[in-house]
Amino acid sequence: MQTLGLDQLVQPDRVHKSVYTDQHLFDLEMEHIFESAWVYCGHESQVKNTGDYFTFDIGRQPMIMVRDKTGGINVLYNRCPHRGVELCGNQSGNTGNAFVCSYHAWTFHLDGKVRAIPLMKGYEGTKFTADDPMASMVAAERVDSYRGFVFASLKSTGPSLVDFLGEAKVAFDDMCDRSPVGEVEAVPVCHRVVQHSNWKFFMENQLDALHPSVTHQSTGVSARRVEQRLKTEKGSAPLFFHYLSTFASSFDQWDAVQTVNFPNGHGILKAYMGLRPTDPDTVEYEDILKKAYGPEKAEEYLSRSIHHVLIYPYLSVQSPLQQLRCLRPVAPNKTVSEIWHFRLKGAPEAIYQRALWYYNLVNSPATMINADDLENWTKGQLGLESKGGEWVSFHRNYGQDTEKNGVLYSNNGTSEVVMRSQFKAWANYLTPAFKAA
């Protein structure tokens, strides 16, 4: 049991190692963060037709996202109210016009309300009746979506989804605005990776501009050498080499970018990745956007300075390349990440291929980029579980960032303001739990 107070665990420029290792703190996180905040469920295109469903976890709770007969999307606990059996054992599929329990054939409408119970006469004279709310599946307290991205909260009170997302909703705006019809659809293939580390390692890493030149040097330098050779020999190199070679950028280059850190832990790593070459595919795509939105608006959409957007505490969005990674924490030292990519509706196939290249070269389980990060996070977890020290340092550029209206702007891209901001949000989420203790 953790005995340190919240102000001892999270200090302005450092945190205690137990925030990554302690089971009690992890349980508090599940209850007061993941099972209270708005959590990403999936994209509406994953459940296109009546009866289509997708299963996932919110904190420790197994959930189902399902399309009903009215076209609406419901989020329900994946549990039969009879004997507790999960109603959907597959990750996705179509359940028809009802859920049917595989144990005793209790049947439920797609909104979770009980539809039929076999041998109902067996309940005559008991306290159980079919109109008892306990006979139906339990729904999430709140469900909402933003530009096709579906979220749910298991808590009845709290900010609206739009207020929760705040300025970080630009992640979804930027992704959808790159489609000439303003919409994206999920590609059904989802990579899943088990990280043998605490979920916070992932979130801190996404806006950590210091690590790429170290962690990914072998891949980045190798790709740059080939890229330069091809440019010398043939005049150009395929764009996918740039996806990897950019990781070999110098410390000074990464220090020149900026992070924007919002009060609720969300954040943005700026720096556009140079995805606007003048090849025919890009020219065709940009012409389509100009016809759809007008030259001025199209330029605004294409020139946004975004590399990563974080939705704290579980989502990383690379909107220029239509990538999304979602965390599902399992234990203090185990996290599952879902890695999705999306197709821009109405955009040329070549533009989708670019997103697919990035998905496979950078974000898939097979790439060296992902493997480099996973190794560091695993070693970090093992180190924090040792007796080699009590504290994790976030001192870099402490006190040197600029604050405006509660938003922290780094004056150095490698400032650890990212981690300090996230832990401030973490402490705010857990404050009620510590006050009640």
Overview of this structure, please?
The protein is α+β, with helices and mostly antiparallel strands and about 425 residues long. It folds into two domains: about 40-145, Rieske Iron-sulfur Protein (3-layer Sandwich), CATH 2.102.10.10; about 165-210 and about 255-435, Naphthalene 1,2-dioxygenase Alpha Subunit, Chain A, domain 1. It has 15 helices and 23 strands. The protein has helices at about 5-10, 20, 25-35, 160-165, 170-175, 200-205, 210-215, 215-235, 240-245, 250-255, 280-295, 295-300, 350-365, 370-385, 415-435; strands spanning about 10, 15, 40-45, 50-60, 60-65, 75, 90-95, 100, 105-110, 115, 140-145, 150-155, 185, 190-195, 260, 265-270, 310, 315-320, 325-330, 335-345, 390-395, 400-405, 405-410. The strands form five sheets. Strands 13, 14, 15, 16, 17, 18, 19, 20, 22 and 23 form a ten-stranded antiparallel β-sheet that branches. Strands 6-5-4-7 form a four-stranded antiparallel β-sheet, with no helix packed on it. Strand 15 (about 260) and strand 16 form a beta hairpin. Helix 11 (about 280-295) packs across helix 12. The protein is globular, with a radius of gyration of 23 Å.
